[in-house]
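Let's practice the habit of predicting before peeking. Look at the sequence and jot down your guess about where helices and strands might fall. Then scroll down.
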Amino acid sequence: MLDYLVSLLTYAALYGIMALALNLVWGMGGMINLGLVGFYAVGAYVSALATIKLGVPIAVGACAALVLAAALGSVVALATLRLRGDYLAIVTLGFAEVVRIVASNEIWLTNGTDGISNIRGPLRGAVTPETFNLIYLTLMVVAVAAVVFLLQRLARAPFGRVLRAIRDDDQVAAVAGKPVLAFKVKAFAASAGILGLAGSLYAHYTSYVAPDSFQPLLTIYVVLALVAGGRGNNYGAVLGAVLVVAFTESTRFLSEVVPGLQAVQVAALRQLVVSVGLLAILRYRPGGILPERIRPVAIPPRRPA
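Done guessing? Here is the structure:
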């Protein structure tokens, strides 16, 4: 039971990092990115290949995943910056599918649908599996705390204030002299880099990656986490990730509560319960459980003429 709870918390931390990345680009910048799982997959494959084929340390593989995912995010951002709303969402969703299809077909690089196995993990094999899980959970908590700290600093910095101005009205921000396109590219690249880091952490935790691990449903779960937790609030993103994992996992036991259901019916009921739970949150907390709170800017008093 303890191993199961530790595993759930580890996956909740992974979802939390992805939700934080989405919050940066969507919650603060107003750009809808449905290609999260694509950058997540790139990070996982880059780190796995770097540590297995090149023999580099895990930390170096994670850094390579972050950098390459950020670089790819810059390319995608430059190609899609003129798009808005639904068009941007469709293109980024298509990008994620392209990554998954490439991973399925480029056997020489990714081993195709068989995936890559035996990925190294920190102290895996040197300690018991139970101890490894606890060590990795600690690592994940530290990673989430570090990402929250950096994004909180960013949100309070002029960069974060400009991003929120672009989210509210990019034309007004441009009139105010802000390079809107440059800010969008930087935000998109930073978000993609965080997603690449999350993918690396996933690969070294599970020791196996395959194209089937990166389905579009994962992006939907992360979007639900941010919406439920509070778009624009980093702490809300983490809380929403924990709630989504708790919802999806707790519904596994519905077959015991409601006997006589077939497997397909249980799956449908699980989705219904999760949907109702999200609708209830949005009904009573439209801004999420922890909505965004923007500090008012102190205006200096006017001096008498």
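How did you do? Strands lie at 116-117, 208-209.
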